[in-house]
Design goal:
The complex is a heterodimer of chains A (about 280) and B (about 300). With about 280 residues, chain A is mainly α. Helix content of chain A is about 70%, strand content about 5%. Chain A has eleven helices and two strands, in the order H-H-H-H-H-H-H-E-E-H-H-H-H. Chain A has a two-stranded antiparallel sheet. In chain A, a hairpin with a 3-residue loop joins strand 1 and strand 2. Chain B folds into two domains: about 220 residues, Rossmann fold, CATH 3.40.50; about 80 residues, 2-Layer Sandwich (Alpha-Beta Plaits). Chain B contains eleven helices and 14 strands. In chain B, strands 6-7-8-3-9-10 form a six-stranded mixed sheet, with helices on both faces. In chain B, strand 7, helix 6 and strand 8 form a beta-alpha-beta unit. Classes of the chains: A mainly alpha (about 280), B alpha/beta (about 300). Chains A and B meet through helix 1 and helix 6 of A and helix 2 and helix 3 of B.
Chain lengths: ~280, ~300
């Protein structure tokens, strides 16, 4: 199994498209850091303009943690695309290039190959999210230093800098889980396709489509909204509440795990019996 | 002496929806054979090969490889087979060596680095080992395809249209390579090709099938020599020859005449007798050429079905 995983990792990291994702994250984080460096104060002043009458803000509000939080907000839009770019290619790419004929005629089990491919794809998810975390927090702390984090959601919360590391760890950890769901969706679509474009666009369309439909038709879809994995994509924000809503967090995690299980089960069931005709 | 059967198809059928791609196909490939797979497009050649290699599952029937049922012994049997199916596809963004490392590793090849050099040298690609496959010509890819079949010292290799897309020189090179693999390495070969002349030149046994069914199976030369064949006699004086023939029973065998030659429909033994007759009648024979090739035979059989 280790041999299969290392081969799959080697293949993923030998492809140019893998580095598109990594490059995109570097560029986006750098842009945010530079933007905050040059125009951060004006943006922040604008954001807390109404609150200045009620509160007195002191200290460094633009700090490394603020950058980390900003990036968390921004990049969950982009990362599913980057994840789908690689996960959607894992099976469909082999079908398209005809290499299934070469590898599946070797004495290897299809189940093990599927596991190895998904683990390799998951490793890529890990690299993306960890890179995003390290780069945003690391660069943010180097450039802006430490400070308390002001969060504006339903209410205003100010977290002490001593109380933030575990919250970021949990938020990024949850991010890895949600991106694993996206990877499982793209992987599932990839098993049915014979070129990568379908599963890549398909998974993005599903995520965006469901999000739009469930937002626009919120009342109509209310009964099923709580069962859709897309509803829980921004649930990392639950870790930036003073009183953690453990029940909500467990529910969000359970929904993600359930979807991963369903997507992978169908993929395995289908692919193990699939006739390789390409 | 008992010969070992490497591949055995027993009434194997594969159905896609309403289409019967392979219909109760039975044949055997024995150790040491170069076994030809012949049939027009859509005859079921590739489907049969894909079933041997476990890429698709038969709808019914039994496939035995090396005396073991494939359905229950996939790993043990595939470990003894190298295959090049349809076209040589590789990871184009990797070098030839890296592709072989991956494939050899999946096939549990031993002394892999040494083996890679050996097979690349064997197919004449050692100097291009570090080049990315996307820079390879079609002929080089075909040779690399054969190289990857040999990495794990298989007992049987299966080549599906190995000469596809090659120029005449490339076709010849592949033919020589296949003969060497069979004769020098003792590897049994199953080869499918639409270049019938190639099969005629290298295969000792063959099967011709059409619409998923076996039309004929057996030794190539026996199949070609069975029944009558058209033979051209090139003579020094055609009119004199025709005149002599008209007084004998041989004129009934004359079916055509062309520039300088007379074409007869004969069984093998009659060729010698007719040659004697012409010489005894003072007619010089400077060439005798059987016209029926595998191609004629193939077309006749597949158009009859």
């Amino acid at each position: 199994m280790f041999k299969l995983i290392s081969i799959e990792l080697y293949k993923i990291f030998s492809k140019g498209r893998t580095y598109i994702g990594i490059g995109a994250i570097v560029i986006i984080v750098l842009s945010i850091v530079l933007g905050a460096y040059f125009e951060g104060e004006e943006i922040l002043d604008f954001a807390i303009m109404n609150l200045k009458d009620t509160f007195i803000f002191e200290g460094k509000l633009i700090n490394g943690y603020f950058i980390g939080y900003l990036v968390l907000n921004t990049l969950w839009i982009h990362i599913p695309i980057l994840v789908a770019l690689v996960a959607g290619d894992l099976l469909a790419g082999e079908a398209n290039s005809g290499t299934f004929r070469v590898i599946l005629t070797r004495p290897i089990s299809r189940t093990k190959l599927l596991i190895a491919k998904f683990i390799a794809g998951w490793a890529y998810v890990l690299v993306l999210v960890l890179l995003m975390a390290l780069l945003s927090l690391g660069l943010g702390l180097i450039v802006f230093g430490k400070g308390d984090l002001v969060v504006f959601r339903n209410n205003l919360s100010i977290f002490s800098s001593d109380d933030l590391i575990w919250r970021f760890a949990c938020a990024f950890g949850y991010g890895i889980l949600t991106m694993t769901t996206v990877a499982a969706l793209a992987y599932f679509l990839s098993a049915f396709a014979e070129n990568s474009i379908g599963p890549i666009i398909g998974s993005i369309a599903i995520i965006i489509g469901i999000t739009i439909i469930s937002t626009v038709g919120y009342t109509l879809l209310r009964p099923i909204n709580k069962f859709l994995f897309t509803t829980y994509l921004p649930s990392w924000q639950l870790f930036f509440e003073f009183d953690l809503n453990i029940a909500k967090i467990i529910r969000a995690v359970a929904i993600q795990i359930a979807y991963i299980f369903v997507f992978l089960s169908i993929t395995f069931f289908y692919f193990r019996k699939k006739d390789i005709l390409t | 002496m008992r010969t070992e059967t490497y591949i055995s198809f027993d009434k194997v059928t594969k159905v896609y929806g309403k289409l019967k791609a392979v219909d109760e196909l039975s044949f055997n490939v024995t150790k040491g054979d170069i076994y030809g797979f012949l049939g027009p497009n859509g005859a079921g050649k590739s489907t049969s090969i894909r079933m041997i290699m476990s890429l698709i599952k038969p709808t019914s029937g039994k496939i035995m490889l090396f005396g073991k049922e494939l359905a229950y012994n996939r790993y043990q049997t595939l470990n003894r087979i190298g295959a090049l199916i349809e076209k040589p596809d590789f990871y184009k963004y990797l070098s030839a060596r890296k592709n072989l490392e991956i494939l050899g590793s999946l096939s549990n090849a031993v002394n892999l680095n040494y083996k890679i050099d050996e097979v690349l040298d064997w197919v004449g690609l050692l100097s291009r080992a570090e080049s990315k496959v996307k820079t390879f010509s079609q002929g080089m890819k075909q040779r690399l395809g054969i190289a990857q079949c040999l990495l794990h010292n298989p007992d049987l290799i299966i080549l599906d249209e190995p000469a596809n897309g090659l120029d005449p020189q490339g076709v010849k090179e592949i033919r020589v390579l296949i003969k060497q693999i069979n004769e020098e390495k003792g590897i049994t070969v199953l080869i499918s090709s639409h270049i019938l002349n190639e099969i005629e030149q290298i295969a000792n046994r063959m099967i011709i099938f059409n619409k998923g069914k076996c039309v004929v199976e057996g030794e190539v030369q026996k199949l070609l020599n069975s029944g009558e064949l058209n033979v051209s006699f090139y003579v020094d004086d055609k009119e004199k020859a025709k005149n002599s023939l008209s007084w004998s029973e041989w004129h009934k065998k004359l079916i055509n005449e062309d520039n300088g030659c007379l074409v007869f429909s004969l069984v093998n033994a009659e060729i010698i007798e007719l040659n004697k007759f012409l010489i005894q009648n003072g007619i010089g024979v400077f060439a005798i050429k059987p016209l029926r090739s595998l191609e004629d035979y193939f077309i006749k059989l597949t158009s009859d079905v």
